[in-house]
Structure formats: structure tokens, C-alpha cells
Amino acid sequence: MSVSLKPPRSPRMKRMQRQDLFYIYDDRDASSVSDQTECADGSTQTIINRRRRLPTSVTNTITPRRKLKKRKIRLMDWKKYHRLSVIYAFIDDLERDFPAICTVSVIGKSVEGRDIKMLKISNSNANNSAVWLDACIHPREWISTAVVTYIADVLVRNFHTLSTSITNKDWHIIPVLNPDGYEYTHTGERMWRKNRAWYGGECVGVDLNRNFSYAWGQSNGEQSNGSSDDPSHVFYRGPAPFSEPETVAVRDTILGSGTPFKVFLSFHSYFELIIFPWGNRKDPCPDYLHLLEAGTIMARAIHETTGKTYKVGSTKDLTYYACGTSIDWSYSIAKIPYSFMVELRSRKHKFRLPKEQIMDNCVEIWNAVIKLMEYVDQN
Ligand SMILES: [Zn+2]
């Protein structure tokens, strides 16, 4: 059975959003964190409400091995954005409550020494292929973490009712790939995009999505920057490919996996796009039509869920040159055939997606992921 969810609410369902020109990495919105009201400060939360009620079409058939104990930590839900401690406690709890299918591991340490945690969801079938979902490589894109944690929650709590195309995969979910930056967007600068690396005696940060080795630092002969060697630049690529521990964690986890990865989904915001290689050049990648078809199937599922329209195409076609990106690397070097970057909501609110839209965005993407997995197994 394939579980397809409808959102509990669907404001603006019929509205098509059309904007022909946009700037995907708009840094003009740089007000301080004190302006933020949508973020829950986990330290003040005392309510235990982890048994979030799922939409009625989904029932949980997995019984936790033992009863939940009372915990100091607090609420995980998709009604607001959460701090790193809440998110990590959430995946740790999933592992504890569903040990047959959940494993949490630390795949690396950030520049400032924080754990980069990964939740693996798997029935341990040796014939499975692997799926990668990462979020908040750009830390200001909070909705991405909400979406992948939602997918984790639905997957785990409904695992035995889900279709084979879902359960025959080993799901590798990295809710916060850039934990230093993520915390900094809560405590310092809400619009921070990079990690918290120091170069030249100051914390300048590296754009982790320009730090992968494929086409790293490539000059394409056009004025458009695929990345920058200027440490103060928002697209600073770092001093060398994989100079940053966060990108190394991705590389080593994927290349070190005994299970072949078939799908790589990196979640960003805010332009409502489904994009695929190449980012570093104009010509279509070898699987262009195939990826276009798969992306279109995802976009259709999104539209059927909430009415939102996501455009589909190559990175270069829909945005601009980008060199050293994770999806160009995953596609070309790691040989992951379905490599996509999903730009979540919203063009209207940019990085500050209202918390009231979190659930709609989560549900529409979950339905898209279901359709992608069906497509992957059929092709
Ligand atoms: Zn991004």
C-alpha cells in the first residue's frame, strides 16, 4: 500500500505562482535573530508531545518495544522550527523506540566540533538500494530540516504499511548537515549561509555547496560566478575541494557505503524548484531526459497535493552556474543516478517561510518522494 497524504490544510491551493526572474541567493534580508518569532527555543519547552497525530490516512502499525519514559526534552513537531538539540533528540528517540529499523550515527564533526548526525532507516534487507536526504547544508534554509524530519517520522511510524518501493531502500537522513551554521542562524545571524570555518584569521565560512570536488573552482569563462575564491563572498568555495569536515562527512559516508546509492536529494529553499545536473555547464547531462521525467513526476505529485507549482530542469537552466555542488558530485563521482536538489518554499517569503506552511510543504514533498521511489523502481 502506498500512503499518499493530503495536507490538513491547504491555503492558496489553486494559486499558481509565476515569477520569471528571480535571484536564488538573495542576501538582502539580513535582519537580526531578535526579529524571529517562528523559532522555538527548545530550552524553554517542557511539554512532551512527541506522539504527534498523523493525518487520518496513516496509521502507525509499529509498536515501540517499550513504553516511553518521561523525558526532559520537549516537543518535536512541525508547527514551528526547532533548535538542533530538539532535532537530535528527536532522531535519538526514534532510534530508541524503533530499534529494529532505526540507527543513528555520527558521520562527522563540524568545524566547531558539533556532531553531524545521520538517521538510517532500514529493514536490513541485503538487496536494498540506498537513498540520501540532506537538509540545511545552507543553514538559513530551516524548512529543509523540517521536511526531512517529517519524512523520517512518517517513514518510521508507518514502515510496515508503506509500499515496497519505499521499504526496499536504506534511508540515510541528515537533518542538519551544517550544524554550526544552523545554530548560528538561531543565535547570531539569521541569514547565514555558509559553515563557520576560519580562514585568514577570521570566521568567514565556506559555502559547502561549492566545496565538493567535481568542477570545484572551475572557471566557465563567463561573468557569472560558479563559485568564489574570495573568503568574504557568499559563494566562497574554500581553499580546496573537501576542505571542510561537513562535505567530507558526505563524501566518506556515501563512498564508504556497502549499499549502492540510487537517490540523492539535497533540500534547500526557497525557489520551489526540482533541479538536477549540471550546474557547472550548459550542456545536458547524459540522463537529462530521464531526470527531467523523474523530476516532473515529483512536481506533479506536489501540485496534486497542494496546488503548488515547482519548476523542473537542470541547475544551469533554472538558476545559473554553480561549481562544486553536491549534486554534480553525487551524480558524476558517486554515480548516484537520481541526484536532485529540491528548492522548497517559498518565493513569497524567501527564507522566512511562515510556520503555518511547514506542514503543507512537508506533505507535498513526502508525496513527491513516494512517486520518485516508484519511478526509480520502474526504471
Ligand atoms: Zn541552499
From TrEMBL:
The family database entries (InterPro entries) matched by this protein are listed as: Peptidase_M14
In this protein, which residues make up the domain named Peptidase M14?
A: 80-376
Q: Which Pfam families does the protein's record reference? A: Peptidase_M14
- SUPFAM superfamilies on file: Zn-dependent exopeptidases
For this record, the Gene Ontology CC terms, alphabetical, are: extracellular space
The UniProt record lists the keyword Transferase: no
Q: Where in the cell is it found?
A: Secreted
Instruction: Please state the protein's primary subcellular location.
Output: secreted
An example Gene Ontology molecular-function term: metallocarboxypeptidase activity
Keywords in UniProt for this one?
A: Carboxypeptidase, Disulfide bond, Hydrolase, Metal-binding, Metalloprotease, Protease, Secreted, Zinc
Q: Name one GO biological process term.
A: proteolysis
Active-site residues annotated for this sequence: 343
Name the cofactor(s) required for activity, per the record. Answer: Zn(2+)
| Keyword field contains Hydrolase | yes
Tell me, in a sentence or two, what this protein's role is.
Involved in the digestion of the blood meal.
Give the UniProt family note. Belongs to the peptidase M14 family.
- Protein's recorded name: Peptidase M14 domain-containing protein
Tell me which species this is from.
Chrysodeixis includens (Soybean looper)
